Amino acid sequence: MNERNSLRRRILVTLGVIVLFRLGQGLPTPQSARPPLSDHSGRWILDLLTGGRLATVFGFGVLPCLVAPFVLRALIVLIPRLAALRAEGEAGARVLTRYRRRLVVVLGLLGAVGVVVSGAQDVLDGAVTVACLTAGTAVVLRLTELITDRGFGDGVRILLLAQVLAVLPPEFLRLYERTGWAAVVVMAVVTLSITVITIVVAQGQRRVPVQYAKRMIGRRAFGGTPSYIPLRFPQANSPAVLAAALLWVLPFGLGDPWWIAVYFVLVCLFAFVRAAVAQDMDKVAGELVRVGGFVPGIRPGNWTAEYLDYVNRRIIAFGAFSLGVVALLPVAGLALLSVTPATLFVAGVTLQVVLVFLVSVSLDTTRQVESLRQQRRYEPFLR
How far is CA 228 from CA 237, 278, 280, 306, in A? Predict the structure, then answer.
């Protein structure tokens, strides 16, 4: 009964915060003006990031909460004091968390000033708009933390998922009005294909067997139990975004049929490099030596590191190719619908990022629910 009550409470908290968040995105700020955007693709991206209603109290959505961690990481590299705080462990992490919260509010303030300047408002109306948008950013920050602490999943990702789902249906409706049922069929195939590939790659792993040496303590033997090292391909949308940005700034014709092939190759290359840099097999091999573990048939130390690196690179190569296919599917689908090259480029990348994000959020939330259920199930035996 306690397990059901806890699950019900978390679900109600999450749903309640989502409803409150969407209500705030529908509450207009006094005397605010939305910056004009003539480019449809630019308006679509802005709508996805802000929920489609910039001239509201929660007009920025979770955008400041998304940007703040990246800005803070850059500042940690540049400012030695922040780097020292990160090295202090839990105490330093609490201080960095406070800095991140303040940075979110500052980003909301800067964005509010930008909205006022682009809307050419007078001083009094502009001050009211800045105050409303900044306060709304602070409230959204608190809502994300409320979901993280008392609901399901990461608060920023859940609220971003909510606002993305609120923006995508109208865009698909416009596409349906232009192309008819072909848009429904193509988008259904693209969505199903991306979902299946993303789940298979995210859930798949290569289990490298590991054996631990036995140790005698008194008359009893400890250790010697077999285990494994799970090697996975790290999921990320950054290779697709980086490849898209590179093609956008380079003098490369988006109407050229070869640009899709170049985009696929760049995504695979960036994904492979990112995953290879993020995983250090020398560190894993060193940790095995420290705890008395070894891979059967492989000598400890550098030989184990070379073997793990060999296996890991094959996994990374397969994952990078899969990510390239995922990035290519929405672009190819929109190309079948005769979308203009500029819109095809932006919309295809955006659709791929959104779908992979939706799948990853769903998987993370499902894992958290299952973990909570297992914890509640075994809690009586741990007392």
Answer: 28, 20, 17, 17
Using only the alpha carbons of the chain, give its radius of gyration. Answer: 24
DSSP state of 152: S
Three-state SS at 383 = coil
Cα 120-123-128 angle, rounded to 5 deg: 95
Question: Is-contact 349 324, C-beta < 8 A?
Answer: no
Structure tokens at 238: 């950054």
Task: Give CA–CA dist 163/50, Å, rounded.
Answer: 7
Residue 165: how many other CB atoms lie within 10 Å? 12
Q: What is the DSSP letter of 294?
A: E
Name 282's Cβ contacts closer than 8 Å, sequence gap at least 6. Answer: 305
**For residues 177 and 171, what is the distance between their CA atoms, to the nearest angstrom?**
10
Most distant CA atoms of the chain, gap in Å: 84
The CA distance from 187 to 168, in Å, is 12
The string of pLDDT tens digits covering residues 252-272 is 655 566 777 888 888 889 888
Q: Check if the beta carbon of residue 159 is closer than 8 Å to that of residue 143.
A: yes
Question: How much is the pTM?
Answer: 0.68
Q: What is the DSSP letter of 300?
A: T
Judge contact between 96 and 86, C-beta under 8 A: yes
Angle between the N-to-C axes of helices 155-179 and 40-50, in degrees from 0 to 180, rounded to the nearest 10: 150
**What DSSP string describes 193-260?**
HHHHHHHHHHH--EEEEEEE-EEEETTEEEE--EEEEEE-PPP-SHHHHHHHHHHHHSS--TTSTHHH
Strand partners, 216: 221
Pairing of strands 220-223, 293-294: unpaired
pLDDT in tens, 318-369: 988 988 888 888 888 877 777 666 666 666 777 777 777 777 777 777 777 7
Q: Hey, which residues does 221 pair with through a beta bridge?
A: 216
The rounded Cα 117 to chain-centroid distance in angstroms is 31
